[in-house]
Every structure is written in structure tokens, then in C-alpha cells.
Structure prediction request, 128 residues.
Amino acid sequence: MAKVIGLGGIFFKSADPVTLATWYKTHLQVPIENWGGAAFYHTDKATLGYHVWTPFAHSTDYFEPSDKSFMFNFIVDDLAQALTQVEQGGGQLVGGIEDSEFGRFGWFIDPDGNKVELWQPSVIPPEK
Prediction:
């Protein structure tokens, strides 16, 4: 059985994501990267993935079909199996599996209407 092995990230809508990210960088030293969010890398190199914090513009459609102002990401050990389990449990799959340099991604809507992103990180982490 596939399982969640970590929290990959928190994504949320903001009226002004650049200003908000700058505020967090200035007042809490959040390490904002060029893409507008922060990545918190594991110090244990054997652990796959990292944690991401990202404000999105209110106009984003990335959280659709959910009407919520946030989305979260879980790191999983087997994406295809995890999506099968979610669907068998009544979750609504959104789109197909996408492969990228960061690993494999899939999405679903949970029973409360939240869009959830599942991430199976690539074995070789991308360049920082």
C-alpha cells in the first residue's frame, strides 16, 4: 500500500504574492527564490523531496476545480498506487500523472472539496 512520507508544500492565494513573499523574507528570513516561493531542503540527503511554501495570485486556476484558496502537497512513496487508493476511497482524480525534472505529480479532490497534490520526488534532486 502506498503512503504519505512527508509534507511537500503549502500553496495559497494572495492579493499580492510578491509583496507578501518579500514581507516574509524581510521579517522572518524566509528564503524566497526567483520563482516566488521558498524551498526548505532536507539536511538529510537520504530523504527525498523538500518543503515548499508558495503564494499564488488570486487569479490562479492552479487550484481548480476546487474553490478553496489553498492547496497542499504530500510526498508519497508510490504515486500511481496512491492515486488508485484515493480513487477507490471516493476521491475525484484531477488530470493525469505528470512527469517533470522534480519527479511525478498527480492531483485529486478530497471529500471536503480540497485539491491535493501528490508528489513522488525524483531520485536525483534538481539543481538548486
The chain has two helices and seven strands. The helical segments are 17-28, 79-88.
